[in-house]
Amino acid sequence: MHVLILHASPKKKGGASRFFAGLFSLFLPGTRKKTVSINSRQDFQRALELFPGMDVVCFFVPLYVDGLPSHVMEFLSQAEKYCKNHSCRFRLYAVSNNGFVEGKQNRPALHMLQAWCERAGITWGGGIGIGGGVMLRVLGTVYPILIGIILLQMAVSFFSTGIVPSGLWRSFAIQIFTWLFLNSGVLFCMARLSSAIRREQVLTDQFTRVMIPSFLFIPIANIFMILSSLFQGRFLFALLKREK
Ligand SMILES: Cc1cc2nc3c(=O)[nH]c(=O)nc-3n(C[C@H](O)[C@H](O)[C@H](O)COP(=O)(O)O)c2cc1C
User: Fold this and answer.
1) Which helix (H) or strand (E) holds 37?
2) Which of 23, 49, 169, 218 has its CA 20 to 30 A from that of 74?
3) How far does the centroid of ligand 1 lie from the alpha carbon of residue 64, in Å?
């Protein structure tokens, strides 16, 4: 099975859509996958030329103003003509993520992609809406660092004293468990999406979110946004030199 993973954030580096696309490719072992970014017009033709050979196209998009980003609309308009002229036969699945915590806010974006499928003569396979996409993306950077620090402490302790204190094992287990828990909704939905793709089934749209209660999400997101604007949108990303 040939699967094309398209991530469509306008961000050139990093970004939540790219993060989810990378995560989802882990759920597709044994398939022939290709991952392509369409963050600007220059990428459109290269992505379109891959369409005819694909059984599945999986679209990873950010929610912009309760809809799809404008460059994605432009891409879809070109893709509609391309698909009609080249008799593309793939099934389209989509994963949309947003900044607010409710995954259901992605419903209009998924509907727009479904409507595009009807116009372009493509089979709609269903999709996932993920709330708190930015937070999950940031946690995807923070947790590996935390876990790396604990592993370093464990290594130092082992080589200096010959034992690893049980407290370090406990911290290690807590960090892994917490990270998995926060991502559990996304991991579960991605497993369902992967199963639908393999069985060539239509997935009823799934909505999930970062597993943090809203009363905690809102103050954490506010603090992040205040710090982010103080550092001109580059807080944490500047620190980690991962994203513009
Ligand atoms: C121009 C713009 C519009 C946005 N509109 C919404 C919105 O309507 N609802 C929402 O929940 N998040 C909105 N967001 C937040 C993004 O959906 C969120 O940051 C997403 O994770 C970005 O994904 P990316 O990093 O792949 O670009 C918007 C962000 C931008 C830059």
Assistant:
1) strand 32-37
2) 23
3) 5
**Structure tokens that stand for 54 in this block:** 């694909």
Q: Cα-flanking dihedrals φ and ψ of residue 97, to 5°? A: -130, 150
Backbone angles phi, psi at 127, to 5 degrees: -160, -175
Q: The whole model's pTM is what?
A: 0.92
User: What residues are in contact with ligand 1 under a 6 Å CB criterion?
Assistant: 9, 11, 15-17, 62-66, 97-100, 105, 133-134
Alpha-helical segments (H) within the chain: 16-25, 44-50, 70-85, 107-120, 133-161, 166-182, 184-198, 214-230, 237-240
- 28-38 confidence digits (pLDDT tens): 999 999 999 99
Nearest C-alpha to atom 1 of ligand 1 is from which residue?
64
Distance CA 35, CA 18 (A): 10
How many residues does this entry show for the chain? 244
- Largest Cα span, the chain: 69
Per-residue pLDDT tens over the stretch 105-133:
999 999 999 999 999 999 999 999 999 99
Rounded Cα distance between 126 and 168, Å, is 43
